[in-house]
Amino acid sequence: MSTKASIKVRYFASLKESLGRPEDSLDFAGSITVRELWCRVNPGQPLPANILAAVNMDYVGLDSPVSGGDEVAFFPPVTGG
After folding, report:
1. Is residue 81 one of the residues assigned to a domain?
2. Is there a domain that residue 80 lies in?
3. 12: number of Cβ within 10 Å
4. Distance from chain centroid for Cα 62
């Protein structure tokens, strides 16, 4: 039996401004993908194209698993010049 643990979700740069908040928290038991997590904490808000994600400070793909106790960060694509 899984117990619920909090997943911390952080937003950076323009994502933080467009969503109007720097972070969310989701109590969750079991496993969920990064993509599913976005949909849970941002219902009705499409996942931006080319978004970057990290789980526990390691860059991951959107289909990577996330578990309770993890920290997930979303970053807009970085452009340089």
Report:
1. no
2. no
3. 14
4. 9
Distance, in Å, from the CA atom of 25 to the CA atom of 41, rounded to the nearest integer, reads: 8
Longest CA–CA span in the chain (Å) reads 51
- Domain range enclosing 69: 5-75
Q: What is the pLDDT of residue 2?
A: 56
Q: How many Å apart are CA 42 and CA 49, to the nearest integer?
A: 15
**Terminus-to-terminus CA distance in the chain, angstroms?**
51
pLDDT in tens, 19-69: 999 999 999 888 899 999 999 999 999 999 899 999 999 999 999 999 999
Domain count, the chain: 1
